[in-house]
Amino acid sequence: MKNRLSAKRRAYGTILKGFILLCAGITVMLLAILIGFIFYRGLGNITWELLTTARSALKNTIGILPNILYTLYIILTTLVIALPVGIGAAIYLNEYAANKRFVRVIEFATETLTGIPSIIYGLVGYLFFCQKLGLGSSILAGSLTLVIMTLPTIVRTTQEALKTVPDSYREGAVALGATKWYMIRTIILPSSLDGVVGGAILSIGRIVGESAALIFTAGTGYALVTHYLQALGTSGGSLSVALYVYAFEQGEFDVGFAIASILIIIVLIINFMTKFVKRKLKKV
Amino acid sequence: MKIKAVMEKTMSCLFFICGMVTIAAVITISVYMVLSGIPAIKEVGLSEFLLGQVWKSTAAEPQFGILPFILTSVYGTLGACLIGVPVGIMTAVFLAKIASTRVAATVNTAVELLAGIPSVVYGLIGMIVLVPAIMQLFQLKNGTSLLAAIIVLAVMILPSIISVSRTALMAVPKEYEEASYALGATKMETIFKVSIPAAKSGIAAGIVLGIGRAIGEAMAVMMVAGNVANMPGLFKSVTFLTTAIAKEMSYASGLQKQALYSIALVLFIFIMIINVILNAVLKRGDKR
């Protein structure tokens, strides 16, 4: 078959195929080199001292325990607010809203929110939460900013999950005399749980990687405040922000690579978890 | 029974409120952007602000011209697309049409991981590897440049382009390709003359999404671009719209700070335009 093709057509095929393989190769190599290089430079710099102490000017040591803690606090605070609101909005859109026009407006709103760069979230968060509401640069202000940022993701993934629940479930529940809320609570939400969890994991990924939206709202603080409620009011840098500050502003590249390694490990775990949830979702 | 009815009402109200909060968030952001962005533009003058070539926000007689930032953002994004779009689309073609299921799954994981890597990590690699490499390769005094930013951005927009294009390519009806094979076309001819044209609105959406990401990226660019308010040049140290805000935000005050809000407004308008284009592209794709 192939022999009958003209030389020109054969060359066309070979060249293009080569180009495609080259590009796919570049993409994979990029990832391999990136992760390899970060682990090579970073893993060795992750020491017990780095993980378990705060930065001390006195001893001239750097520790990222506060940053780890603040990252967790920010994730927790953001999800505690964003999950209920996001899930509620998704339920409203999918189960209650009768006005299709209104649904489209909200969907347009969430889509628009996804496209806005994080630096703009940071700026508005700073103007609104830090200045207007007087929260100052604090974990709480940072978390509230991230709530606005992660809402669209949560709304959308929950909506997708709700859409996969067959209508026959709804009809069956209503036919048995269930009220709407009872039906949502006992039928709809449990069967879309995987999607909700997926959305939450995605949001955690975004929060962990976020820097531009946090640097002006949550600040760059590194003093250790372990009490959760106290920490809400203090300025605290998440791991990503700490990476930026140490590497770019202070030239502490070893610490930067150590944090980068930790971040990559977190990304790997999150990726694995998303896959796991997706697989479960397919089975249901 | 009455409690049940009350409960029903409360819950439906609650869900409605959740929906409204989402809308309120968009409105708050838009209103704040516009309201806080206008004063400085009024003070400086719109044409002076948009077309002025000099940004000296801290001088005794400050000048607020953001043309260098706008052009840098535009050039930087175009440059990133020039590298990222071909590589991205070809990788998508590989994933959707050439690779076996198993290979495709592996490469796909790689793409997802690329998307998940935080931007500061890209910035760090850029600082440590790319900037010195550019310095040596082109015999520059300093490697922080538009070129470094373009390369970093090109890598960062890859995942969006790949995943959206791949979905579009996979959605091309099998019949199109089978008809092409039946007419005697080779696999490559089919891909480039049938599959890609058929998926072009989806691919375009991926590119627009990538453009949006590139124009909005702040921290990674900040770490490699040098952040001097030069008019753009490939080997010059430059400032993007995003980095102009990030750089001075922490210490700015008065008119300088207001000017930063105005830059954010310009960036916001850029993103809105991109969003509208994206929606139009997707809608046109749906119609067909």
User: Percent range for helical residues of chain B?
Assistant: over 70%
Distance between the termini of chain A: 46 Å
Helix-strand string of chain B? HHEEHHHHHHHHHH
Q: How many runs of DSSP E, i.e. beta strands of chain B? A: 2
How would you describe the overall organization of this protein?
The complex is a heterodimer of chains A (284) and B (288). Chain A has 284 residues and is an all-alpha fold. Chain A folds into two domains: 2-45; 48-283, MetI-like (MetI-like fold, Orthogonal Bundle), CATH 1.10.3720. Chain A is 77% helix and 2% strand. Chain A is built from 13 helices and two strands; from the N terminus they run H-H-E-E-H-H-H-H-H-H-H-H-H-H-H. Chain A has helices at 7-42, 48-52, 65-96, 100-115, 118-132, 139-164, 167-175, 180-191, 193-209, 212-215, 228-233, 239-249, 253-283; strands spanning 54-56, 61-64. Chain A has a two-stranded antiparallel ribbon with strand order 1-2. In chain A, helix 5 packs across helix 6 (139-164) and helix 9 (193-209) packs antiparallel against helix 13. By secondary structure, chain B is mainly α. Chain B has one domain (55-287): MetI-like fold (Orthogonal Bundle). Chain B has helices at residues 2-44, 46-51, 67-98, 101-116, 119-137, 146-170, 174-182, 187-198, 200-216, 219-224, 241-249, 254-287; strands spanning 55-56, 63-64. In chain B, strands 1-2 form a two-stranded antiparallel ribbon. In chain B, strand 1 and strand 2 (63-64) form a beta hairpin. The longest helix of chain B is centred in the first third of the chain and has 43 residues, at 2-44. Chain B is globular, with a radius of gyration of 23 Å. The model of chain B has no long low-confidence stretch (mean pLDDT 89). At the A-B interface, helix 1, helix 3, helix 4, helix 5 and helix 6 of A face helix 1, helix 3, helix 4, helix 5 and helix 6 of B.
